[in-house]
Target: Pseudouridine synthase
Amino acid sequence: MPQYILFHKPYGVLSQFTPEDGARSLAEFDLPKGVYPAGRLDKDSEGLLLLTDDGPLIEQLLNPRNQKPKTYWALVERVPDEAALQCMREGLRIEDYTTLPCEVQLLEPQPEVPPRDPPVRVRKSVQDVWLEITVVEGKNRQVRKMTAAIGHPTLRLIRRSIANLQLDDLQPGCWKSIAREDIAWGAASSAGTTRSGVPVRYGRSVAGEPRNSKVTAPRRPGAWFNKKS
Model:
């Protein structure tokens, strides 16, 4: 039976099981055998990664013609004005291509996210803000290039969703199993939740904490990724 895993990739981890140039890899997180990433996140990006041994599903997700939306939270340098955000929405000329229209907004209120190791460079004289950006393309480092093109470099990037699959309160280094029925490409559903009664497995590569403890329902969404009230 195919396996479907949602994993919160931490900063500095490669989207592969083989270590390379001293970087951390997926091998240290006790993931089920036989699964592979359906797509990638850069080593310096964080957030939702889908792993599976379902080859046709991987092909469907990676096929650019299917245009699966992916949503990111991007911490950018300085506060973009509405004109800059509108340029992103309409499409930007980057290198040898023009990006497709996307959705982008300034997150209000600004979200609370866990500290990163190493921490993001902070300049007291510059205000950094979180944007929410939804794209349907998957070009190399596209979101970072888009924010740089409007003059607001990305300092930190977290993928929050892939189509209807959501990161929710899954913490860095943790993963959970979902059912095939939970993957509804393009559906406006209760994204990221599992069917009632479907076992969810959490794994974490943290000393002193249990791995793969079983529960019968997803944990209640907490304040880990909630916006400030």
Observations:
- The first strand starts at residue 4 and ends at 9.
- DSSP finds three helices and 13 strands in the chain.
- Helices lie at 55-62, 82-90, 142-149.
- Residues 82-90 form the longest helix (9 residues).
